[in-house]
Amino acid sequence: MLSIKNLTVSIDEKVILKDFSLDINDGEIVALMGPNGIGKSTICKVIMGDTHYKIESGSITYNKEDLLSLDVVERSRRGIYLVNQNPIEIEGVSNAEMLRSALECRTGEHTNFFEFNKRVTEICKRLNIPTSFIHRGINEGMSGGEKKKNELLHLYVLEPKFIMLDELDSGLDVDSLRDLATSLKEYLSEDISILIITHHISILEYLKPDRVHVLKGGKIVESGSYDLALSVEGNGFRSYEVSSDGDDE
Ligand code: ADP
Ligand code: MG
């Protein structure tokens, strides 16, 4: 599904990712772990198409298409979705307005008001959030945990195929994490892949990853199974070596 090859990315002249490579197959759940400030969110934003980052070299292909030549709208249309680490608030635009426009933009058809309301109400129930969220401003005045739930509300309406969860678990209480993880498990199918960025094992206990990678010095320094995440949780990242020209900052 997604193939990143030898990607080097910088921002403000500072190299964040160096020769970074990662492959994610259809239906795969991949976890990426690493110390703070190492470039995990950068990877997600670069895949999504954030133009603040400079691609120095390398490639990203998505279903055999050159992803780097597409803008963020086209990437979204192809089913790429990012749940941001810190979801932004958009005042004055309601969830319902944004989602209806996004659906219309995607399908080219007028959304049926009643069908739309029925669907969004069902999703609210699944996420254990009040239906009043539907008409609230996007993430406006919501708590950290509510914002994450609201982002998943968007996700289930837009039905993406490649999902990046950037620290979805941060700011979530135990019950909310279970609700969200359970809803994601129900959503999963053979053609949906997930990249999970996390520091904690709990989310991975629900969404058992097929592979776990450790990022350090701009690239993946260790790969393994679920057991690697357990080892990271127990021992931290200090033992992972960075190759000679790696820059840890
Ligand atoms: P992580 O998600 O692994 O904690 P990030 O990808 O957010 O790390 O950041 C990696 C590095 O890039 C950090 O040193 C951060 O300060 C820097 N960085 C990220 N985005 C920007 C930006 N927009 N402007 C300047 N520096 C940035
Ligand atoms: Mg981050």
How is this fold's topology laid out?
Layout: E1 2-11, E2 14-24, E3 29-33, H1 40-48, E4 54-62, E5 65-66, H2 72-77, E6 80-83, E7 90-94, H3 95-107, H4 113-127, E8 137-138, H5 144-158, E9 162-166, H6 174-187, E10 193-197, H7 202-206, E11 211-216, E12 219-224, H8 226-235
Parallel strand pairs: 3-10, 3-11, 6-9, 9-10
Antiparallel strand pairs: 1-2, 1-4, 4-5, 7-8, 11-12
The structure holds adenosine-5'-diphosphate and magnesium ion.
Structure description:
The protein has helices spanning 40-48, 72-77, 95-107, 113-127, 144-158, 174-187, 202-206, 226-235, and strands at 2-11, 14-24, 29-33, 54-62, 65-66, 80-83, 90-94, 137-138, 162-166, 193-197, 211-216, 219-224. By secondary structure, it is of the alpha/beta class. Strands 6-9-10-3-11-12 form a 6-stranded mixed beta sheet, with helices on both faces. Strands 2-1-4-5 form a 4-stranded antiparallel beta sheet, with helices on one face. A two-stranded antiparallel ribbon has the order 7-8. Helix 3 (95-107) runs parallel beside helix 5 (144-158) and helix 4 (113-127) crosses helix 5 (144-158). The longest helix has 15 residues, at 113-127. It is globular, with a radius of gyration of 18 Å. The model has no long low-confidence stretch (mean pLDDT 93). Bound molecules: adenosine-5'-diphosphate (ADP) and magnesium ion. Magnesium ion binds at residues 40-41, 85, 166.
